Amino acid sequence: MVHLLRVAPEAREQHKAAFLDLQAEMADDGLRFSVDQSGLAVGGVVLPAGTPGLGELQDVVEACGVREIRIPPRVHPALLLSLLRALAHPGELNAPQDLIDQFDPAGTGEIQVLSGHHMPAADNLINLPTIETSADQEVSGTVSPDAANREADADLLPGLMRPTPGDEEYLIGPIQPDPRKGSLLKEIEPQVKAAAERGDWEGYLDLLTRLFQEQERETDPRVKERYVTLLRRVLPRSTQESLAQAVVSGTGRAEAVALFNRLGAEPTEVLLELLAAAPTLAERRTYFTMLSHMREGTRGIINRLDHPDWFVVRNIAELCGELRLTEAISRLAEQVEHPDERVRRAVAAALGKIGSSAVAQPLRKALWDSSVMVRLDALQAISRETGRGLVMTLSLRLDEEEAPEVQRQICQALGRIGSPDAVQTLLRSAQPRRGVFARKRTTSRVAAVEALGLAEGPVVVSALQDFLTD
Questions:
Q1: CA-to-CA distance for 453 and 447, rounded, in angstroms?
Q2: Pairing, β 31-36 against β 39-42
Q3: From CA 204, how far away is CA 235, in angstroms rounded?
Q4: Is 42 helix (H, G, I), strand (E, B) or coil?
Q5: Measured between alpha carbons, how far is 141 from 224 in angstroms, rounded to an integer?
Q6: Nearest 10 degrees: CA dihedral of 105, 108, 109, 111?
Q7: Residue 153 · residue 147 · CB < 8 Å
Q8: What is the pTM of this model?
Q9: Which pLDDT band, with edges at 50, 70 and 90, does 159 fall under?
């Protein structure tokens, strides 16, 4: 939250989610964070290096000689926000009192500050004085977060550093954490982490599946975001990799994909790396299937089409086809002349599955490939939509093609296109040649007649009736 206030002061939705999450964490026991030689600890747990904003926060706390800050579970939201803002934008802080003056100038004493560079004795505890009140005003010095009149609360905190106009309502006013939901999240997080540590991925998935069933029943979008925040904490990149590897050889793939799809593009990158390094066909197919159900991260998929390993390019080309990635057409077109035939075959098939009219040009190149198998895959990829601009090329190929199986697939492609010029090409091919030495092979004529059956229209029907007497 401190890091967000510092680097993204206008990111209101993120502020809401982080503030709500922080209140949920504090719902039962409050919050205690401290600095010692091992680093900055929250609730006695030292934060790992690399945590966003850790260095800046530690510098602020150490600069003013603060050893520990204790925040009670029912602290007033305005006072908590004021502390967070003070830590995010500290100004000149040289002593604990400087920090206190900045976040609690009214002296509520609700948040306790411990000073010193060693574990403090009792007299090091800075408890600020209570608010001076008149005889007819009963105030204990701790402002109740349940007070009905928020304006009265503001009067009891006369110098409180408040959000800018319009900010207070978006962040503090509506946030009243549901203790039941906060307890659920706090209860389930250590269980999920423990399951991951012992490699119990079935239990791990069961816990998170239950959690997100609760999320689906939630109507408040801010509370729903807290579930996603928890997922990001318990499913970092390293755990995503471990989970994916576990479900490849076991069960739970659908559940894992459902969780991955809640995390944006990062899991797609993880699965792509695993796909590239997979040692067996079975593993590759499993990662491939999981990737085909991912909703984000397609740019990372396309960027791997220029990978130096042929098998990676082949796998990625197949994936682009399965996902119908029209934005991959231009990059696939660059691989039509790849030196490895297996890649060229995968590219031709992928272009056909994408099915846009924009694939006609790269398929035209594939029709002249030196490999019979590539030509066959390219022909099988041609449909009515993709082939309307290819009739002339197919007509030329039909005259020059020597391989009978390719001839038959050319006719089939023309039949699927079914345009008038495609039908005329098939009719010419189905007619016998005249003259003693101009005999046409029966197989090519039969292939043309079969393909006419795929086309429609009165011309086709009449021609097929004529061939009954051939």
A1: 10
A2: antiparallel
A3: 10
A4: strand
A5: 35
A6: -80
A7: yes
A8: 0.54
A9: very low
Question: How many other C-beta atoms lie within 10 A of the C-beta of residue 53?
Answer: 17
DSSP secondary structure, 48-96, as one string: PTT-TTHHHHHHHHHHTTEEEEEE-TT--HHHHHHHHHHHHS--S--SH
Within 10 angstroms of residue 143's Cβ, the number of other Cβ atoms is: 22
Angle (nearest 5°) at CA 440 between 437 and 446:
160
Chain mean position to CA 357 = 29
For 252, what's the count of Cα atoms within 13 Å in the CB-facing half-sphere? 20
Which uninterrupted H or E stretch holds 34? Answer: strand 31-36
Tell me which residue has tokens 């039909």: 398
DSSP state of 29: T
Q: State how far Cα 190 lies from the chain centre.
A: 24
What the block records as the tokens of 13 is: 């939705």
Burial group, residue 178, by CB count within 10 angstroms (0-12, 13-18, 19+): middle
Average pLDDT for residues 317-327, to the nearest whole number?
91
For the chain, domain boundaries: 2-171, 382-470
Nearest partner of 253 among 214, 222, 292, judged by Cα: 292
pLDDT of residue 323: 87
Name the least confident of 30-39, 195-204, 226-235, 428-437.
Answer: 428-437
More confident of the two residues 134 and 234: 234
Distance of CA 87 to the CA centre of its chain: 31
Q: 168, 147 in Cβ contact below 8 A?
A: no
Among all chains, which residue has been given the structure tokens 């250590």?
A: 190
Q: Which residue in 341, 298, 336 sits closest to 316, CA to CA? A: 298
Q: Are 96 and 65 in contact (CB under 8 A)?
A: yes
User: What are the phi and psi torsion angles at 47 (to 5°)?
Assistant: -75, 140
For the chain, the C-alpha Rg in angstroms (whole number) is 34
Amino acid identity, position 100: I
Separation between Cα atoms, residue 90 and residue 372, nearest integer Å? 71
Q: What is the distance between the alpha carbons of residues 95 and 108, in angstroms, rounded to a whole number?
A: 19
Tens digit of each residue's pLDDT (9 = 90 or more) over 166-203: 444 444 444 344 444 555 677 788 888 899 999 999 99
